[in-house]
Amino acid sequence: MSNISALQKARYSYQPKLPTALRGDITKITCSMGAPTESIADQAEVKALFENTYGAPIARFTEGSNDFASKTINAGVILSGGQAPGGHNVIAGIYDALKKANSSNKLFGFLRGPDGIINGDLVEIDDKFMNEYRNTGGFDMIGSGRTKLETEEHFEKSRKVCEANGINSVIIIGGDDSNTNGAVLAEYFKKTNAGITVVGAPKTIDGDLKNEYIETSFGFDTATKTYSELIGNIEKDANSAKKYWHFIKLMGRSASHIGLECALQTQPNICIISEEVEKKQMTLAQVVEDVTQVIVKRAARGDNFGVALIPEGLIEFIPEVGKLIAEINDLLAHDADEFAALEDGEAQKTWLAGKLSAEAAPVFTSLPAGIQAQLLMDRDPHGNVQVSLIETEKMIIEMVGKRLKELKAEGKYNGKFSTQAHFFGYEGRCAFPSNFDADYCYSLGYSAFILLAQGLTGYISNVAELHKPADQWVAGGVPLTMMMNMEQRHGHMKPVIKKALVELDGAPFKLFASQRDKWAVETAYTFPGAIQYYGPTEVCDQPTKTLLAEKA
């Protein structure tokens, strides 16, 4: 890496903070094991699929003794799925703990995600290599990929690659699907007596890999602070020019955590929460009407400008559209070859309209042609609609504009509606990790090593009490099976880690709901500014407002 910025150079020397339990002599750290656990739902079905790893206890690190130093532990690490700030620091935490335990231990990076372990494409990580990536964003150190580890062929190839390279532990850094695959891989290795442990780390900027024990996924803090800086900049511009409504679609397909956190940080005029739309069984027309009424009220005050946050996955949460998408996903999963053989887009639409249920067909035909086409685009690796390609923000702009014209004709609106559309997604995935994410990720990596060194498999690295200073964090591990339920994927029931959606009775949403009517009409914007890495703790080391509200 010959070209580095001044900030990158400075960040190399940042020493991430660790919980007290992980500091000092690594040979004085041991695991305290709790009671047996169960999956959050579908216990019998999940247990039947994980006969060798189901029911493991929660692990917490305490002072004691271990035999790390006498063991030779060679580990391989995988970055899986989309990028999230801090991934390199997870690897750094693993590397430093591994070398601290025994300098002869080795860490390998599987290149380009799960494909690396399947195909034996890997590189040994040494001091020089590791030091070029500490505290930096991106996954470019070893690359990532979206291949799913899910077949016996994949597992056998992975086992042989590990055996050929003397690797006895694997760490998968990923989201809910990647860690589900890790749990299945751990089960296979245990069942076949491969002698290879598998541990995960919770990654996703979407914030939907969380539960009672996983307080947040890494990258969420940095990504939302990055987006909030941009939203704040746009709010400042909107309040200066006073002539545009900015509609900002925010990444986060399955949950509105990003939108909610950014709203708490920036106080926009509108923030749609998908989970609330679903709970209230709102139609698309009702969503549009709610947005329209805010614009009308602000125009009555002479404010023909504003900022609206739109969650990426909104369209799936509108019940009538969500049911349509679910049917499309199932049809295209079962009849993929027949669908692919159709001549063009119009033939595909006609075929689909004939296959859909009586309830879903009219919804599909009522959608704008552009949205229809986007619903039929290539699927993602999990067989789902690629929601990020659906321009929901532009659809809402068009529909709101049409409604405002109707109101103007009725004499109920006399404002101006000029718009700008934005999509904030990739801007936040590879940002320099905040101090919080740098510290959190390093602790996750350090914890992951201790779990695998203790011979624990099928766990996800866990650091809790994150609202407190880092030295008070509590580290350990949680069995992956306890976070699972059964869901339909590709037309079949499969075990998956349950996604965490925004809880409408949770403290973060209640805080937002208590203020949004005021923010809607008034111009009450706040401007977080850029992420700060050096300076007062209250500026540099604060976690998200979501986490603080949950722990208040």
Automatic annotation (TrEMBL):
For the ligand (Mg(2+)), the binding residues are D176
GO BP annotation list? fructose 6-phosphate metabolic process; response to glucose
Location in or out of the cell:
Cytoplasm
Its main localization is cytoplasm
- Pathway involvement of the protein, from the record: Carbohydrate degradation; glycolysis; D-glyceraldehyde 3-phosphate and glycerone phosphate from D-glucose: step 3/4
Q: Where is the active site?
A: D206 (proton acceptor)
Q: Which InterPro entries match?
A: ATP_PFK (IPR022953), PfpB_PPi_PFK (IPR011183), Phosphofructokinase_dom (IPR000023), PKF_sf (IPR035966)
Q: What is its EC number?
A: 2.7.1.90
The way its activity is modulated is described as:
Non-allosteric.
Tell me the Pfam families matching this sequence.
PFK (PF00365)
Site for Important for catalytic activity, residues: K203
The kind of enzyme this is, by top-level EC class, is transferase
Q: Which residues bind substrate?
A: T204, I205, D206, K243, Y244, M251, G252, R253, E312, Y426, E427, G428, R429
User: Mind listing the GO molecular function terms for this protein?
Assistant: 6-phosphofructokinase activity; ATP binding; diphosphate-fructose-6-phosphate 1-phosphotransferase activity; metal ion binding
Task: Write down the required cofactor(s).
Answer: Mg(2+)
| Phosphofructokinase domain location | 75-330
Q: Where is this site: Important for catalytic activity and substrate specificity?
A: D177
**Origin, by domain of life?**
Bacteria
> What biological function has been recorded for the protein in this entry?
Catalyzes the phosphorylation of D-fructose 6-phosphate, the first committing step of glycolysis. Uses inorganic phosphate (PPi) as phosphoryl donor instead of ATP like common ATP-dependent phosphofructokinases (ATP-PFKs), which renders the reaction reversible, and can thus function both in glycolysis and gluconeogenesis. Consistently, PPi-PFK can replace the enzymes of both the forward (ATP-PFK) and reverse (fructose-bisphosphatase (FBPase)) reactions.
The record's similarity note reads: Belongs to the phosphofructokinase type A (PFKA) family. PPi-dependent PFK group II subfamily. Clade 'Long' sub-subfamily.
The identity of this protein, by name, is Pyrophosphate--fructose 6-phosphate 1-phosphotransferase
Q: Species name for this entry?
A: Spirochaeta isovalerica
